[in-house]
Amino acid sequence: MSDDRPNETTETNEPGRRADRGAAPAQGRRAEQSRKRRIDAVVALAIVLPAAVAIGLGLVQDDGLPSLPTSPPTRSQLTSSVVVCPSAISEGEVSLTRVPQVAGGDVTVRTAPAPDGAPDLLADLPPGEDLGVVPERLTPVPDSAGAVAATGSGAAAPGLVAGRGEAIAPGECRGPSFDEWFVGLGAASSDRSTLELVNPEAGPAVVEISLFGPRGQLNAPDDLRSITVPGQSVQTVDLSAAMPKRVDFSAHLTVTRGRVTAAVRQTYDPLGRGRVTTDFLLPQARPDTDNLLLGLEPTGGRQLFVHNPGDDELRATVQVVTKDAAFTPADTEELVVGPEQTRRYALADLLPAGATKDSYGILVKTTSPAAVAVRSLVDDDLALFSPLPSVQEPAVAVLPEGAKRLLLGGAQRVGLVQVRATDADGKVVAEERVEVLAGGVAEVELPDDAVAITVESRATPISGTVLVSGSGSAPGLGVVRLRDAAVYADVPVVAPE
Length: 497
Fold this sequence. Notes:
By secondary structure, the protein is mostly beta strands. The protein folds into 4 domains: 29-62; 85-283, Hypothetical Protein Tm1070, Chain: A (Sandwich); 290-387, Hypothetical Protein Tm1070, Chain: A; 390-489, TM1070-like (Hypothetical Protein Tm1070, Chain: A, Sandwich), CATH 2.60.290. The protein has helices spanning 23-64, 222-225, 239-242, 347-350, and strands at 74-77, 80-85, 94-98, 105-111, 121-124, 129-133, 139-140, 148-153, 160-164, 179-187, 191-199, 205-213, 216-217, 226-229, 233-238, 245-257, 261-268, 277-281, 288-294, 303-307, 314-321, 326-327, 335-337, 342-346, 361-378, 381-385, 395-398, 404-409, 415-422, 428-436, 442-446, 452-457, 463-471, 474-481, 488-491. Strands 19, 20, 21, 22, 23, 24, 25 and 26 form an 8-stranded antiparallel beta sheet that branches. A 5-stranded antiparallel beta sheet has the order 5-15-11-17-18. Strands 10, 12, 13, 14 and 16 form a 5-stranded antiparallel beta sheet that branches. Strand 12 (205-213) and strand 13 form a beta hairpin. The chain crosses the membrane at residues 39-60. Residues 1-35 are annotated as: Disordered.
């Protein structure tokens, strides 16, 4: 049998000798060198191609796409602002003022007719008048029983503040909001809520409403889920008539078109067994894991409402806030709230007896962001509490006349807070520097004739509320939260083309 294979050369590597260089080994070396050159080319292309693509994309971006700004936004004074006050519950006119050291100017004021107890109505904001508003002096708005919208332009825009002089039910005056929560609403005969939507702009606005009860989201009627508010008008909706329910619930309001300021009037009717009383349920801008509520009285059947907006259950712990710190009392149970649920708890069942004896309020800490509120009765008057916003700029509030006190808390570190109170003519009637401890609360008694207050904290953000005591034929408690007054606007940096 013959072997058809080509002749092979046998290589022997002897010491001191090179292997014989035949034809076949030479071809192998050339193949090896060729493979090395191909590998080197692939590596080079792997390095060069991405760089070429990046350069090409950069050229395309330079030609057609704007580059993102690399500088933070700059601050400048506002050139346009709106402050809206809801309709009065009983009495008390609206007054305007400004943050100190703001030049100010004339403000255009529009006032809607008084609601006169009508549960559902649509009222117009007629053309108004111009009023001069200066810092630390009140400018009253005549015939202001209905909703009021104050608009400032140019130099009149920064630092505009408004308030209503009702002692036990002062509605909160603020600018339009696009997203906020109202917790602990009712739609039954003994506990009902009325929603008021004010559109200060010329064009129509649309408000989307989602409702959540003890078992999750509620099936609301279509006309309540989406409400159109015509331009420069006030839309009032009685929730007990639109969707009668015997359960407590929360509302998430989202403005999808235009600008709207929302207010909720909560009415408690013991059905012939006592006093019918109404107060404003204040909104919460966004759910949070630390919700501070100050001014709660130790009695009055206090009810805590907790809403979980998330998709997973949350756990909540109620801490007691004192002068020096916030702490969790022994034997305090942890609350569990399911996804999209609103639950109600009696604070007397949550906190041990005597735990709130020297307290100023509570701090609700949750494992994920939550929206909360507290409902109580003080001298048979409904008093509603919502979380306090953090204040970082000088805050100014318009106050009713009468006995009142200021509570300051929420400090992140020890700091001094400057408090100055003035009467209707701008005369300083009280001025004090108050030390606030981290986690603690400071209390300041204010004169009865103090109708405006300026609070400034430079070392740490703070939260604050003014508690106004009713008297005579109208006993009870009013709550005024401190809020930042809009003075500046953040203007984004736009890169030139």
